[in-house]
Amino acid sequence: MSSRIIIFSAPSGSGKSSIIKELLKEEDLNLAFSISTTSRIPRGKEQNGVEYYFISVDEFKEKIDKQAFIEWQEVYAGNFYGTYQSEIDRLSSLGKNIVFDLDVFGGINLKKIFGKQALSIFIQPPSLEELKKRLEKRNTETIEKIQIRIDKAKYELEQSIYFDRLIINEDLSESVKEASQMIRNFLKDSEL
């Protein structure tokens, strides 16, 4: 059986990474995390090769020219994010279902590429006010950067219609249960 693709997208601070972290513990889902590549600097305790592959803007542009990415976006000015084709190949060779944590437009693009082989899930915050609180609580960015993320989130929320499923992340454990069930149904339907 070939790998199935599970795409999580959301405005920054919606909780998609926290949901994915919990889902990866559910061994029966046979999930592996696709590590994205970014040109931004690590935040907090992020490590190269764990949360992201961190490379310079110049290296990123070089990789674009070499067509190393299956998808990429300039999410914020000078901050590029992308998915290496080699990362997908690596995880597929392990026989795993591949989980992606992508920005909204990266998620839309990856779903277009994989079609029915992929399940795309949009994680929505309960409100923009709650999203702002979560971003402030991270304590990793300036007030100006948080406002840029909130402004972008307003537009990103309108893109949820392009995803297969929607989860409003009010309570993390409930959202994990909901996502787990969506994935189980998708994997079961894929076997038919």
Identify the notable features of this structure and list them briefly.
single chain; 192 residues; alpha/beta; five-stranded parallel beta sheet; Rossmann fold
Please sum up the structure shown:
The protein contains seven helices and nine strands, in the order E-H-E-E-E-H-E-E-H-E-H-E-H-H-E-H.
Report the principal-axis shape: globular
Q: Number of helical segments?
A: 7
N-to-C span: 11 Å
In CATH terms, what is the fold-level topology? Rossmann fold
Q: Give the number of DSSP strands.
A: 9
Structural class: alpha/beta
Per CATH, the architecture is 3-Layer(aba) Sandwich
Give the SSE order as H and E letters. Answer: EHEEEHEEHEHEHHEH
The portion of residues forming beta strands comes to 15-25%
What is the CATH H-level superfamily? P-loop containing nucleotide triphosphate hydrolases
Uncertain ranges? none
Mean pLDDT, rounded to whole units? 92
The residue fraction in helices comes out at: 40-55%
Strands of the largest sheet, in order across it? 2-7-1-8-9
| CATH class category label | Alpha Beta
User: What is the radius of gyration?
Assistant: 16 Å
How many structural domains does the protein architecture include? 1
Major sheet attributes: 5 strands, parallel
